[in-house]
Amino acid sequence: MEEKILSIQTAQNELLEKAKKDGVKTAWDRKVDLKAPCGFGVAGVCCRICAMGPCRVSPVPGKGADRGICGATADVIVARNFARMVAGGAAAHSDHGRSIVLTLLNASKDGDFKVKDEKKLMKVAKRLGVETEGRDIYDIAHDTAKAGLEQFSKQIGTLTLPPTVPEKRAEVWNKLGVMPRNIDRDIVSIMHSTHIGCAADAESLIKMSMRAAIADGWGGSYLATEFSDIMFETPKEIDTEANLGVLQGNSVNVVLHGHEPTLSEMIILASEDPELIELAKAQGADGINLVGMCCTANEATMRHGLKLAGNFLQQELAVVTGAVEAVVVDVQCIMPALAQLSKNYHTKFITTSPKAEITGSTHIEFDEEHAYESAKKILKEAIMNFKNRDNSKVYIPDVKSKAVVGYSTESIVSALDKVTNSNIGVAGTVKPLADCIVSGVLRGAAGVVGCNNPKTPHDNGHVEIIKNLIANDVIVVATGCAAQAAAKAGLLQKEARNYAGAGLKKVCELVDIPPVLHMGSCVDISRILELVGTVANHLGVDISDLPVVGVAPEWMSEKAVSIGTYVVSSGIDTWLGVVPPVTGGPEVVDILTNRMEDMVGAKFFIETDPKKASEQMVERIEEKRKRIGI
Ligand code: SF4
Ligand code: MSK
Questions:
Q1: What is the pLDDT, as a whole number, of residue 424?
Q2: Would you say the CB of residue 559 lies under 6 angstroms from ligand 2?
């Protein structure tokens, strides 16, 4: 293994040592086995779109072949590859969104899935033009679901934008020709236009990427969040704990991993079934201990305080503890390695979605029509596996941190009401937040999001950047694996205000919040968009006028590329801590890191050093403040 820090997490490093002793490999070992990555792939100049290729053109102008067999230049190849990454990411988020909308379409008063948040249903129904007056709640829910599905497929007109998109932003998109038509179409358009012999212009391909990404952020992901809130409730502030130390020595430990909350909600419900608790006890366990991994964890912790076992790079190490009876997964960010790895322990690796079957797993399809019974069946598998645990192989690191989570836009607004009532008298608005930013008590806000990547020390980028930002009075909102990194580092505790600058500390004390707000899963970046859009509308400005930045310090997924692209397209400068595969296309690099600013008022910054990235972010926030005269 390489002689460098693999993780800033002690739990992680202890378990990496155990993995070595147990003779099993993890992502870090496989990275070393793979040796240096292919230089063409790193630069994005390898094309395998047609069977005349694959063509690898030179990433250095003047050296080697400068065109593929069809004549595509390095920039065209890089731009097509980039666009296909955006399409992959937008498809994953939006198909998740579609599943949630379809679940509401089939929800009923007596069924397993119900409307739990009527207020949110009314809000979404109204924004999608559904009549609500005097109607049965489930009639409204079903019509709202149909209106949601329309956003994926309507053939005439454009995406119904949420009212949180400032008018000026919509004008920017219309002028640039990147206003989404519908979610599916703008993803399909990319697949069509990147086919051999179609689009061959870097700028046009990046604009298509922006359109599909906007359809993701303000469409598919936005709907995923809204419809999840309708069925499972809009999150409110709640306590939890984070890190692998949340596994318990004598309980049936079940790790819920993946993304869509439908499965995890039902399993959480089933875990309280007396029949299953008795069954667990009959096997000699104290009970059932559900914990979460990746974004399933984020969804469920926001609503139930589910304990966070860890983020992306901890999924294998949860199994290495030897204390996990089952890893239950649905879709996205699931390492296929879990199938082989779990066979080295007693862990059952249970796949549940037809969208993500994995060779070597135990597949128990989650049947939404009989969701509760399905969830019970899955949990029974885990419980009956408890007796197979080999205690000589068990090691649970004694490491966990307390955290406060559950900051939906609604719960942030309700926290802000604590100061609104005394100062202004108008509750239910973002005015106090906007006032703090305008007055300079808070210098700005930052969204810290995205994955883990073994190219960078695990969690280091997230934690260092967050600490630097809050020390500079920049309030941080976090989602996805970044939020879990913050939780494990103790940054989601209210006491973490002691790491903050004087202004942010004061605000945190007054409003009684931590300096870093966990806003949910990756699709819940829509909550961040909703919040910044609401602040921009409140101030009568565009999002690009606000001293707000975004950063994905350890990103790895195509979803992150789509996220970065819609965040920049929404007018928010975005830092990437891992270099994307675009460096072989000088024009593409110029568009992303320079020309996008003229198009949408924001651009990408690529900086692998977390310290430098946070300095640049603070500098940019101050520049923005000067520019708008605050
Ligand atoms: Fe090569 Fe062009 Fe085919 Fe790509 S599309 S593999 S560059 S011939
Ligand atoms: S889970 S996309 S590793 S943030 Fe949403 Fe984490 Fe990235 Fe998956």
A1: 52
A2: yes
Does residue 202 line the site of ligand 1, with CB under 6 A?
no
Quote the radius of gyration of the chain (alpha carbons, Å): 24
Q: 244-393 has which CATH code?
A: 3.40.50.2030
Q: In whole angstroms, give the CA distance from residue 269 to residue 234.
A: 17
* pLDDT at residue 423, rounded to an integer: 52
317 ligand 2 Cβ < 6 A? no
Supply the mean pLDDT for the chain: 96
The helix (H) or strand (E) run that includes residue 7 is none
Q: Is the CB of 451 under 6 A from ligand 2?
A: yes
Q: Cα separation of 606 and 573, whole Å?
A: 11
Residues 438-471 have pLDDT tens digits of 999 999 999 999 999 999 999 999 999 999 999 9
Q: Would you state the pLDDT for residue 441? A: 96
Question: What pLDDT does 425 receive?
Answer: 53
51 Cα: distance to centroid of ligand 1 (angstroms) = 7
Q: Token match 């009923």: residue?
A: 108
Kindly identify the ligand whose nearest atom is closest to the C-alpha of 73: 1
Ligand nearest to the CA of 74: 1
Q: Which atom of ligand 2 lies closest to the CA of 521? A: 5
Q: 74-232: which CATH number, 2.60.40.1180, 2.60.130.10, 3.30.470.20, 1.20.1270.30?
A: 1.20.1270.30
Write down the domain spans for the chain.
74-232, 244-393, 407-627
Distance 482 CA to ligand 2 centre (A): 9
- Give the model's confidence band at 2: pLDDT under 50 very low, under 70 low, under 90 confident, else very high: very low
**Protein residue with its CA nearest to atom 8 in ligand 2:** 333
Ligand of minimum distance to the alpha carbon of 452: 2
Q: Do domains 244-393 and 407-627 have the same CATH topology?
A: yes
Quote the ligand 1 centre to 195 CA distance (angstroms).
Answer: 9
ipTM of the complex model: 0.96
Q: Which atom of ligand 1 is the closest one to the Cα of 55?
A: 1
467 contacts 508 by C-beta, under 8 angstroms: no
Distance 46 CA to ligand 1 centre (A): 9
The pLDDT value recorded for residue 1 is: 40
Any idea which fold 407-627 has?
Rossmann fold (3.40.50)
pLDDT digits over 323-336, tens only? 999 999 999 999 99
pLDDT value at 271 more than 80: yes
Structure tokens at 138: 């489930």
pLDDT over 70 for what percent of the chain? Answer: 98
CB-based contact 627:561 (threshold 8 Å): no
- CA–CA separation, 296 and 306 (whole Å): 10
40 pocket-lining for ligand 2 (C-beta < 6 Å): no
- Ligand 1 contact via 525 beta carbon (within 6 Å): no
**What value does the mean pLDDT take over residues 74-90?**
98
Ligand 1 atom with the smallest distance to the CA of 76 is: 7
180, 186 contact by CB (below 8 A): yes
Spatial separation of the C-alpha atoms in residues 424 and 420, rounded to whole Å: 5
